[in-house]
Design brief:
Pfam families: TetR_N. By secondary structure, this protein is mainly α. It has two domains: 56 residues, Arc Repressor Mutant, subunit A; 136 residues, Tetracycline Repressor, domain 2 (Orthogonal Bundle). Helix 5 packs parallel to helix 8. The N and C termini lie far apart (73 Å).
Length: 206
Amino acid sequence: MAYRETEKMRQRKALAREKIINCTYECVAEGGFRSARITRIAGLAEVATGTIYRHFESREDLFAEVFQLATQKEVDKVAEALNTSGDAAARLEAALRQFAGRALRGPVMAWSLLAEPVDPKVEEERLAYRKAYASLFEKTIREGITEGCFPDQNAQQSSTCLVGAIAESLVGPLSLTQPNRENEDNDPLVDAIIRFCMQGLTGTRR
């Protein structure tokens, strides 16, 4: 008789997989992907290292899934800000402020998502999520052009430039070589980033 996996066994496997993902996420939030060693993850998850490879074909596959999970949370927060009330310019400014503010409040995770050297499979996910941000911004820029908030422009190109500008402007402050910024007043930095981005879109000083 062929072996049949019971529902209880499937639930146990699902819980073990979830715990591995959560522990990996915790390691990345504390010290980046470089600190997420398989032996450490296994210890936190209270499983053998071989168990991790029964759920994920490779370390890169595990990291890619954790990257997806972490970045989707940030994309969702930006989407929420873009769905608030106000004209397109106000909503876009709120979304950019959300992006930059959350990054500076969680600098280690933000550095890991934006700039930390990673494996090719994780880098593919990074590029995919940059496109996701750009898509959200593009839609709002198009709405702003229709509303008259923004001058006529190539919304797709502008959104790509916007993602690049805000991400690059955060790399230095988020660098692990910089002092811990979690308890600093980041408002002036965030204001400067927003001012630059909005001036680029509107062509006027703010």
